[in-house]
Write a structure and sequence with these properties.
This protein is of the alpha/beta class and about 375 residues long. The strands form three sheets. An eight-stranded parallel β-sheet has the order 8-7-6-5-4-3-10-9. A five-stranded mixed β-sheet has the order 11-12-13-14-15. The protein binds iron/sulfur cluster (SF4). Iron/sulfur cluster binds next to loops.
Amino acid sequence: MVAKPMPRNPTRSVSIGRVTVGDGHPIAVQSMTATKTQDVAATVALIDYLVEAGADIVRIAVDSKSDAEALAAIRGGTDAVLSVDLQENYRLAPLVAPHVDKIRYNPGHLHHLEKSKPIRDKVAAVVDAASRSDCAIRIGVNCGSVDPALAEKYPNDSIAPMVRSAVEHAEILDELGYDRFVVSLKDSDPAKVIEANRLFAEERPDVPLHLGVTEAGLPPDGVIKTRIAFEQLLSRGIGDTIRVSLTVPNDRKHEEIEAGRQILDDVAHGRFRSVPANLSHRLNIISCPSCSRVENEAFVDLAQNVKKLCKYAEEFDVTIAVMGCRVNGPGETDDADLGLWCAPTFVNLKRGEELIGAYSYADVLPKLREELDELIAARKDS
Ligand code: SF4
């Protein structure tokens, strides 16, 4: 079958180093490092490995001044197009911007520091750093960490706070006169990713979108969930860059790029894979892809072991979230029936928003089994 030009929304073009996205440019495929950012040799090696596998842009997480300092050495070790994830600390922007091509900030994390300072001033500081260093910006909205004021305003709706946050921040950047930005709206539920991106694209058809299903989890389920969202969005012309987030060890990170390229190729050729109709009513294990913040290298094994342990419950409509760190772990496990988030030497186990306890990496599995048995028994009785 011959590839037809994919329909593309009339987004404006945004240059990110030597890559240009939007305005009909090829859809860029991204990935992210999961090494400790201060381990410069390992991080450069992983970046080069990802580029070799076909990544157009590689993202790195930076949480501290020491991470920011390591970026200078990383920049010197690779000519890859680099993006940096500021997460909680927007004040690092001036330190990181000279070494990267794009800065991602999360609007939901801007309230963590300097609580009395207006959000607009914090965004202005990021924009100032980006413009001085010729950087693009990504406004990266995430379901698990939306602006608390918007979450309060729309108490029974998880999509509206994401869309309103993205639109508000796009308007702030407009007012600041900075148009080199893209937006992402990520959730672990593909249906919500589709709806949030569709609504944003309707309102702001000019803004390039970076697509992703966050915490998609272990392959093959992680690829299937991502495919559900990407097929729907890409075939409607929505999406200028993509990332498939998979929970895999570093030596299998190329699978993120391969899955992304395969989905793009399939959509271009009109090959849409059938999706099990009852996917959302079966056991759903969501897990983050891990990054430099991961608290313990045993995280990927933990996610794999959770999947094996819970296989007996495949037919039940239960969501289990497995997260690698304290940054996103506590918030992004809240909506799951059972949640695990990693600390350096133990794992926190939650039932919904309630913390059950902290267990060693070995002991958490039998405790999880106990909780899952109870949950299933309760569901059978109801
Ligand atoms: S949950 Fe933590 S370790 Fe996992 S990808 Fe997110 S920030 Fe990284």
